[in-house]
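The instructor's notes for this session suggest beginning with a concrete chain rather than abstract definitions. Hand out the sequence below and ask the class to guess, before any prediction is shown, which regions might be ordered.
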Amino acid sequence: MEFAKLIRRAGQLLLASTLLILPANFYAIPSPQSAPNIGVTGNLSASNVKRGRSVQGTIVMDIPGGYHVNSSRPLEKFLVATELRIEASNSIRVGPVIYPRAVLRMFKFSKSRVSVYEGRAVMRFRVSVPASAAIGSTQLKARLRYQSCNDEVCFPPRTQEVSLSLTIN
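After discussion, reveal the predicted structure:
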């Protein structure tokens, strides 16, 4: 009985000393970082438009807290700019995209400030329907390319698509 206690006690001491000898950061294994789930939605100010008129379109990015997206004009060449492209039928014209105002932040991965969008970023554009356009329904396809980051790392660029329906009267 005494011998079993002695063996058990020696095992406990060996385990305790092993735990003390191992480096502390061995236990602090970082969880793999993954890109945030950024919501991208689109809207037109009206779903019906008369020929010869125009409507305003918006694409909205909802960026979770702790993350940001590079602006449409990043200050560093290695960062990927946010870019919105709208595809429409030949007769419909899409005006230039108006991007939101960016904020300048410092992050661990950069030695200088970075131009970013945080929270909710709204991009606006105008859709003009010529008087000669065919009556009926059409789809506009918005493709939003962006690069998201947190304070330490940037994730690979991503493209999300949004379809916008428009009925021409």
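Then share the key points. The chain has one domain: 36-168. The chain has one helix and twelve strands.
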